[in-house]
Amino acid sequence: MSILFLCGCSSQTHSSPKETTIPVTLHVEDAKGLPVEGVQVTIVKAPSSDEEPSTEIGEILGKTDKNGDIKWDTGRKGDYSVALTKGETSVTHHISLTEDKKDHAIPLVFKE
Fold first, then answer.
1. What's the rounded Cα separation, in Å, for the pair 112 and 109?
2. 87/82 Cα distance (integer angstroms)
3. Per-residue pLDDT tens for 56-103?
4. How many separate domains does the chain show?
5. Residue 13 included in any domain
6. Is the pTM of this model over 0.85?
7. Which domain holds residue 52?
8. What is the pLDDT of residues 4-13, one digit of tens each?
C-alpha cells in the first residue's frame, strides 16, 4: 500500500495581485457629436513596448445602441486600442483605462 501526500504553499511573492475591473461606457459619436448606432467595438490590450507586439486576442464587445453607447465591464487598468467598425469603415482609438474613469463614459469619434 502506498500513500501519496501532496503539499502546496503559497507566498505573497508568487501570487499576482488581484486586478479589479473598471466598468465604463464607450460612447461613439460622429464628427458633429451625434451618436452612431450599430458600430462594432473591438478592444485589444496595447503592447507593453514598441519592440514587443501584443499577443493579446481582441475582445469584441458588440455593437453600439441607438445612443451610441456600449458597456465594457471587463476592462482592467492599462492602455488599449479600440477598433470601431461599421460597413467598410474602420477607425482606431487609443485609450488609457484608469480608476478615475470607473462608471463614466469615454467619448470616441467615428468618422465615416
1. 10
2. 16
3. 678 999 999 999 999 999 999 999 999 999 999 999 999 999 999 999
4. 1
5. no
6. no
7. 24-109
8. 444 444 444 4
